[in-house]
Amino acid sequence: MAEYIKYVDVTKCDGCRACMVACKNWNDLPAEPEEFQGSVQSHANVTANTWNVLSFIEHEDSKGNLDYLFRHSSCFHCSDAACVKVCPEDAMHYTDFGTVDVNSDKCVGCGYCVQNCPFDVVQLATYKDKNGKEYKKAQKCTMCVDRLEEGMQPACVTTCHTDAMEFGTQEEMLKKAEKRLSEIKDKYPNAMIYNPEGVGGTHTIYVLAEKPSVYGLPEKPKVPTSAVVWKDYAQPIGKMMLGATSMALVGAFVSNKLFNKEGKGHEEDGGGSHE
Question: Its Gene Ontology biological processes (predicted)?
Answer without folding.
Answer: cellular respiration; formate oxidation
